[in-house]
Amino acid sequence: MCRNPVAKILKSDTVTDPRAPAVAFFSSRGPNVIVYAILKPDVSAPGVDILAGWSPVASLSDDPNDKRQYHFNVLSGTSMACPHVAAIAAYLKSLHPNWSPSAIKSAIITTNVSDPILALASADFAYGSGQLNPVNATDPGLVYETTTEDDLKLLCHLGYGTSRVRVVTGDNNISCPARTSPTAIKDFNYPSIVIPVPPKSDSFETGLLRTVTNVGSAANATYRAEVVVTTESARELKIQVKPDVLCFEYLGEKKSFNVTVCGGNFPADPFFASAALIWSDGTRSVRSPIVVYTLPPM
């Protein structure tokens, strides 16, 4: 045996896949059939051919005679994408222990990779706000937060009723109002904007309210709004943001803004349009998808 082995490292070539990233054919698609005005899925994460831990007592196949035992396996599916997101959420919580679950969710959604993802039409319903970026999520700049009161208003508006809401929250002092606010859904402070339009609509105009919180590294920060069109059909829409400049003076400060979307006389039915609202301070980009689509016939 050689006492002085020598290894030789050869030059390697990087092989890229021009078809990536792409949404897997088996991945579930939207729209959200429970709440049409909330985008689902939220984000997309790696979920195909993922090297994952595996129990050695479990079979590698459905064959009962398969006696192979391994601690790892290559798997695909939502069960592989979900741990990526869960790990990022845990990582963000370790860096920002005071962040709420909604703040963590917002950071993940608004800091995605903006490179195109291959999918069929209505792409936002395939990949949400895009492929997540754990590095960018650690410093999102701004976050969209929801409070417990916001969540309760939404549940009440969806018809859960006082008894069910009390079961969900564990609080017997909570009661749903006799009449819920008509803005409970469209003004729900979610980091994405979805506007469902009745089919055969001649025209529409929808106004929404959103609030962001300054969580950046600088107390004094100025963010400017930009609306970016991601599908040609979105050019038929008029999207306005007021105010389009937000000036923050301290960390944790909240600022609200209104988004107005109007359009009509759509040439195609069903109609789907995709755009994005981006708040930028020159360093960070806080991106929220805007989706307008015609509701499916009931």
From TrEMBL:
<comment type="similarity">
    <text>Belongs to the peptidase S8 family.</text>
</comment>
<dbReference type="GO" id="GO:0005576">
    <property type="term" value="C:extracellular region"/>
</dbReference>
<dbReference type="GO" id="GO:0004252">
    <property type="term" value="F:serine-type endopeptidase activity"/>
</dbReference>
<dbReference type="Pfam" id="PF00082">
    <property type="entry name" value="Peptidase_S8"/>
</dbReference>
<keyword id="KW-0732">Signal</keyword>
<keyword id="KW-0378">Hydrolase</keyword>
<dbReference type="InterPro" id="IPR023828">
    <property type="entry name" value="Peptidase_S8_Ser-AS"/>
</dbReference>
<dbReference type="InterPro" id="IPR000209">
    <property type="entry name" value="Peptidase_S8/S53_dom"/>
</dbReference>
<dbReference type="InterPro" id="IPR036852">
    <property type="entry name" value="Peptidase_S8/S53_dom_sf"/>
</dbReference>
<protein>
    <submittedName>
        <fullName>Uncharacterized protein</fullName>
    </submittedName>
</protein>
<keyword id="KW-0645">Protease</keyword>
<keyword id="KW-0720">Serine protease</keyword>
<dbReference type="GO" id="GO:0006508">
    <property type="term" value="P:proteolysis"/>
</dbReference>
<feature type="domain" description="Subtilisin-like protease fibronectin type-III">
    <location>
        <begin position="187"/>
        <end position="292"/>
    </location>
</feature>
<dbReference type="InterPro" id="IPR041469">
    <property type="entry name" value="Subtilisin-like_FN3"/>
</dbReference>
<dbReference type="Pfam" id="PF17766">
    <property type="entry name" value="fn3_6"/>
</dbReference>
<dbReference type="InterPro" id="IPR045051">
    <property type="entry name" value="SBT"/>
</dbReference>
<feature type="domain" description="Peptidase S8/S53">
    <location>
        <begin position="20"/>
        <end position="130"/>
    </location>
</feature>
